[in-house]
């Protein structure tokens, strides 16, 4: 019997496979297909202090082995979440992690303080990397001082597991990772989407209402994997890897590169069962290679 | 929320209805769940380097005794083209059943069903299911020309069939909303429409002006089809709603048209 | 009759389609298939002062809609080029552009000075963005001061058309573009490859001898297109766009986003005729849309 | 440099030679250029989401009168698998002819041809073309087991066939270099080999020690196949050379083995 457990700071995951924020709604949608209690963890849709309508339609464009999105953090705000959604989902048997967003440090703090009160939310993921909002979002995650500031302030008010989600749209992601580690982040997750663009050549218009959007899917996997490997070699806190994971081999690659756990995003749109298939695939891999525990995979790339 | 599935269906029929529309009939290994007109499926397009995401198609027919479901696929771009090349015996992977259906009319209703382009499938499915006597159902189908219309004579038993074509080669000339039926539009208590945006908006405008109940089925671009990506939104009176879970069918009152 | 001519500073191109450096050898290989005189221009393989063996095998890995390479500027040095290759290719009826590389500013200058002497080389492309060499290369292209320094020094010794090739591995590509424009670059070309990585999950080893390599192909197109659009809006010099162009629609998208001309790279590996097909496709597009000249496409995206 | 083409060939035959090897015969619309043993083609794998680059395969047979060319495709991964699923009548897009061929032996030579795995195709092509009498040609083919050998009895007219299998189920047991023929290796003036790296290196070592002329055909990973990408290099006495243009066939003296 192989051991699939992994640990992200204080957070015990029954297996290393979580679903990524913005790709698994508020968990309920996935329960239409299966029991989400099988997942290692579930990242809820990005949440802000107040209601956000998100960006105008069209919000997505297909690209080669990937897609662009410009959702722009549509959500009803943290209070609505706490009052209306949380009670319905809190007893799902998997760690539910709130993806915290804000246009200002104060907003990040306000959302965090509210979420801190929720018994069944064992961790937050601080999203300083959303490329689809005009204010805040990615702007916090692409410079060390701002990444440090928001992490420091949120750390002050949050006592459970604090994951900071990094943007790949930077020259050196290890600097940002070290900066947030220095301010008390318990873990970093990477990568968020790459800023991209699509054009309809016949109509000569951008395909997204916002012109640019976030690229995700297998197309970005080689870059995401490189970043996870770099960050793993630069920080001591656990790394959560993501970006184009479609199957167990992809997930294992991220773990070999240094990820303690992974998140599956866009793949869910193709098939919501993929996270479960990946859990099975990792188990089968460990058995076949006679490796006792999933946690042994982390960083064990042979050079 | 309702139970949804990801399943490999076997293609038992794939026939060209005309040069751009294909009927694809799919066999399930297990008993099909209830599927109502307006609901749709999200289809994986295999063997295509260019297609990454699934493609949504309305359900056209369901046979619960045979466990079959049919789609009408109109060739629009690369994904729909590839799908129509599928061979009998092949399998296709489908996420279903998705979305909310049209509301069913009441016994005393007189209804007008309007379908254009790829919107024909859900309209014909609905025609079959209204539960009304033929006299109370009018169906207008619009297309550019006679060649683009498919043969729907089987549906004459469910309602009175009318056609429009832009070139006048079948039925009345012009868009669906130019059809003479619209001169007595107040005869109808309910209008249902599915087709190109411009067509639905024209229909909605008339229904709105005349104060007639009207449901339309939208075809926004989708990434997931089951409510997790928030890409398929439509601005409504209640804010941006996902058409894949809160639609694709909307009462025009809910929309901001 | 549509007019396909475009102009990059002093350089007249008979059409906007060039082949990218490192993907079309030293032109001769393409002549096995067709007359390269049909091309708008041809970027020769990256050239350094001295012979370079490049990196060890394996140097490439296939990825989703793309590939990683770690060639590492294998070439016989600029003197060998001048003596042995240049005489054979100089009369091809298309602008041949030397892709100039160095580990130090002095090397860039030395190569440039030698190439400046060659009558039939109307332009150079300064590669400050190669991710596959330990020294120099990309390190020049990811910070403004170093990008400025190398551009300034090379500009001093070069009097023909100077194109600077930018790295996409940066937080803000417009800053680098503006920096090199400020030092006298006549044009910028972008993007070079993205730093990526691939792993063999079964063997638990990196697939490239160098661990990381450069990602190219359709996978990167949305990001490249976004960068071209940003740079077009930030500088006044002509922009040459590339990154995953596989067909005429792709090329037109880059032009609409702001490129005056495009380069086709990885697509050539799939089919060396693709650049010619793109030229035909652009012609057909202009005719169909009743646009008189290819140059009108540049930046005419409707917002 | 020599003239190369990109062409759509029609698949006229695709038959399984055993569970993992397929013979694919391709018809050209125009007269084929000269193609010699050791040269290869680069094949586009259509309809596969996962395959981006072409896949190289040695030419196995050429028929200039019929304008056909055959390949032997061994299933290794996803691309080769997909290729073997191609149907007669389909077309495949090929870049060809690529690389340099084996040198032909002289009349007085006694040659040993050694093929393993996917290296069988060029060896059999060479066997046919040596121009030598059968007595002067020995061919050893190695595989893991009898099932993995393909039927090459047709080639008995070109040379004496020998087999090795790792499990002893056909011919001598062991690797090709364990074959008893190697006890009289000095009978041969030329050795030609194509197969897995380890096999070719073992052969090369023996040839080197004994001072026998030896050519091997390498199978490095390729991106382009015609010399522009510099990905397929092999370290040689002349530095890193592209095997797609300077090889795939090399005299072992040129290599750094
Ligand atoms: C709920 C729903 C039900 C549908 N039912 C049917 C049906 O029963 N039969 C049928 O034939 N089609 C139906 N469609 C439309 C169908 O999904 C599209 O035709 C198909 O996805 C096009 O894919 P493609 O790869 O062929 O086109 P692509 O190559 O992806 O696109 C070709 C062009 O069409 C545009 N386009 C693609 N999809 C849409 C869309 N949904 N709305 C507007 N423009 C679009 C693209 O932007 C592009 O310009 C339905 C769509 C939805 C959302
Ligand atoms: C000049 C040349 C001639 C060849 N002739 C033949 C032939 O006649 N018949 C034949 O069956 N095959 C031949 N091959 C090998 C053939 O190209 C590969 O088997 C094929 O490309 C594998 O593609 P795939 O998609 O099936 O495997 P993939 O899914 O791409 O790879 C599967 C695994 O095999 C490894 N791999 C893939 N290609 C190679 C390779 N070339 N060398 C080492 N490892 C590799 C991959 O790294 C991976 O681990 C030849 C190769 C070359 C370079
Ligand atoms: C439609 C969509 C919405 C997303 N929304 C969020 C979000 O709200 N918060 C966040 O941190 N990341 C968001 N992401 C990014 C994903 O969580 C993930 O970082 C990214 O998609 C890369 O992983 P993937 O390639 O597996 O999808 C979103 C991605 C997509 C495609
Ligand atoms: C195998 C390979 C070798 C390359 N060598 C060079 C080089 O020598 N100099 C350079 O400036 N760019 C080099 N590039 C980058 C390309 O010129 C181009 O910028 C990049 O591949 C993106 O375009 P594409 O997606 O069309 O290939 C190389 C790319 C590849 C794939
Ligand atoms: S398509 Fe994803 S939410 Fe509707
Ligand atoms: S495969 Fe490109 S140079 Fe050999």
Q: How much helical structure, as a percent, in the residues of chain A? A: 25-40%
* Range of helix content of chain B: 10-25%
CATH topology of the largest domain in chain B: Rossmann fold
Q: What's the Cα radius of gyration of chain A?
A: 18 Å
End-to-end span of chain A in angstroms?
29 Å
Biggest sheet: strand arrangement of chain A: 3-4-7-8-9-10-15-16
CATH class type of chain A: Alpha Beta
Distinct compounds present = flavin-adenine dinucleotide, flavin mononucleotide, FE2/S2 (inorganic) cluster
Q: Main β-sheet of chain B, in a few words? A: 7 strands, antiparallel
Key structural traits:
heterotetramer; A: 303 residues; alpha/beta; TIM Barrel; 8-stranded parallel β-barrel; 4-stranded antiparallel β-sheet; 9 helices; 31% helix; 20% strand; globular; B: 257 residues; mainly beta; Elongation Factor Tu (Ef-tu), domain 3; Rossmann fold; 7-stranded antiparallel β-sheet; 7-stranded mixed β-sheet; 3 helices; 16 strands; binds flavin-adenine dinucleotide; binds flavin mononucleotide; binds FE2/S2 (inorganic) cluster
List the helices and strands and how they pair.
The complex is a heterotetramer, with 2 copies of chain A (303 residues) and 2 copies of chain B (257 residues).
Chain A: E1 6-8, E2 11-13, E3 17-19, H1 28-31, E4 41-43, E5 60-63, E6 66-69, H2 78-89, E7 96-100, H3 105-116, E8 123-127, H4 144-157, E9 161-165, H5 173-182, E10 187-190, E11 194-197, E12 199-200, E13 205-206, E14 212-216, H6 221-232, E15 239-241, H7 248-257, E16 259-264, H8 267-270, H9 274-288
Parallel strand pairs in A: 3-4, 3-16, 4-7, 7-8, 8-9, 9-10, 10-15, 15-16
Antiparallel strand pairs in A: 1-2, 5-6, 6-14, 11-14, 12-13
Chain B: E1 5-16, E2 21-27, E3 40-43, E4 55-58, E5 61-63, E6 68-74, H1 78-84, E7 91-98, E8 111-116, H2 120-129, E9 137-143, E10 160-165, E11 172-173, E12 190-194, H3 197-210, E13 213-217, E14 233-236, E15 239-242, E16 249-251
Parallel strand pairs in B: 8-9, 8-12, 9-10, 10-11, 12-13
Antiparallel strand pairs in B: 1-2, 1-7, 2-6, 3-4, 3-7, 5-6, 13-16, 14-15
The site of one FE2/S2 (inorganic) cluster has 12 residues of chain D, from loops.
């Amino acid at each position: 019997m192989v051991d699939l457990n992994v640990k992200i700071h204080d957070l015990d995951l029954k297996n290393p496979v979580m679903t990524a924020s913005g790709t698994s709604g508020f968990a309920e949608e996935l329960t239409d297909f299966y029991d989400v209690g099988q997942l290692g963890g579930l990242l809820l849709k990005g949440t802000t202090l107040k209601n956000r309508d998100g960006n105008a339609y069209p919000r997505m464009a297909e690209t080669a082995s990937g897609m662009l999105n410009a959702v722009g953090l549509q959500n009803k705000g943290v209070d609505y979440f706490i009052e209306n959604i949380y009670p319905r989902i809190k007893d799902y048997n998997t760690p539910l992690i709130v993806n915290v967003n804000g246009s200002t440090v104060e907003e990040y703090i306000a959302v965090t303080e509210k979420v801190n009160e929720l018994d069944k939310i064992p961790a937050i993921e601080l999203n300083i990397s959303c490329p689809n909002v005009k204010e805040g979002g990615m702007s916090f995650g692409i410079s060390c001082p701002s990444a440090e500031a928001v992490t420091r302030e949120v750390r002050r008010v949050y006592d459970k597991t604090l994951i900071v989600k990094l943007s790949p749209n930077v020259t050196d992601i290890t600097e940002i990772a070290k900066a947030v580690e220095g301010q008390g982040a318990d873990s970093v997750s990477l990568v968020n989407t790459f800023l991209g663009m699509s054009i309809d050549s016949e109509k000569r218009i951008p395909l997204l209402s916002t012109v640019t959007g976030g690229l995700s899917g297998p197309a970005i996997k080689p870059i995401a994997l490189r970043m996870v490997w770099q960050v793993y070699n630069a920080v001591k806190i656990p790394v959560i890897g993501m970006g184009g994971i479609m199957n167990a081999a992809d997930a294992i690659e991220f773990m070999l590169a240094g990820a303690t756990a992974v998140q599956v995003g866009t793949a869910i749109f193709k098939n919501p069962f993929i996270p479960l298939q990946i859990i099975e695939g990792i188990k089968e891999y460990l058995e076949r290679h006679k490796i006792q525990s999933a946690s042994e995979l982390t960083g064990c790339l042979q050079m | 929320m309702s139970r949804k599935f990801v399943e490999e269906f076997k293609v038992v029929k794939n026939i060209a209805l005309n040069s751009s529309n294909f009927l694809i009939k799919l066999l399930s290994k297990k008993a099909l769940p209830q599927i109502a007109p307006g609901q749709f499926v999200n289809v994986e397009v295999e063997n295509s380097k260019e297609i990454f995401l699934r493609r949504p198609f309305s359900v056209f027919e369901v046979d619960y005794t045979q466990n079959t479901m049919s789609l009408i696929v109109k060739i629009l771009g690369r994904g729909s083209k590839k799908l129509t090349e599928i061979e009998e015996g092949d399998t296709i992977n489908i996420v279903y059943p998705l979305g909310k259906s049209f509301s069913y009319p009441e016994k005393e209703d007189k209804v007008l069903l309007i379908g254009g382009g790829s919107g024909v499938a859900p309209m014909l499915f609905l025609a079959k299911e209204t539960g009304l006597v033929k006299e109370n159902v009018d169906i207008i189908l619009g297309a550019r020309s006679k060649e683009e219309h498919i043969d729907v004579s089987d549906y004459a038993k469910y309602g009175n069939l009318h056609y429009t074509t832009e070139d006048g080669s079948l039925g009345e000339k012009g868009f669906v909303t130019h059809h003479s039926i619209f001169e007595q539009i107040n005869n109808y208590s309910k209008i249902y429409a599915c087709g190109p945006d411009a067509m639905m908006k024209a229909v909605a405008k008339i229904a709105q002006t005349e104060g007639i109940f009207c449901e339309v089925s939208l075809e926004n671009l989708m990434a997931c089809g089951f409510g997790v990506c928030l890409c398929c939104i439509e601005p409504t009176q209640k804010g941006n709603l996902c058409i894949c879970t809160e639609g694709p069918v909307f009462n025009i009152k809910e929309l901001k048209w």
